[in-house]
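Give me the fold.
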Amino acid sequence: MEFDKLTEQVLGACFEVSNELGIGFLESVYEKSLVIALRDKGLSANSQVNVKVSFRGQDVGDFFADIIVEEKLIIELKVVKTIAPEHIAQVLNYLRATKIKTALLINFGKSKLEYRRFDNRMVVL
């Protein structure tokens, strides 16, 4: 239930950004705008968060999560015509590499905001 409320707040902020900016900007513009919208809602939101990837107890690489909200939700942003399987794989790998249980894949590349929710490594929509 806690994650449903957080997801609802985050999606509300995403729709605000989409409605105010429309389409056609770079991903970084949407990222910065979304962080502002999330913080305006009183949420803790950090962008380009460095996350270590471990293999057998050893660090083997890093990735940068676009946005992490309240240390509970990963947001991966895209500005593409359509969400592709590799985008989904990316989000699932992010969940696997962290202890975070929920992620949103947000696409600002269409006239209507596109999103998918991932929870416990399964697509929920």
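Residues 2-123 form a domain with the Lambda Exonuclease; Chain A fold (CATH 3.90.320.10).
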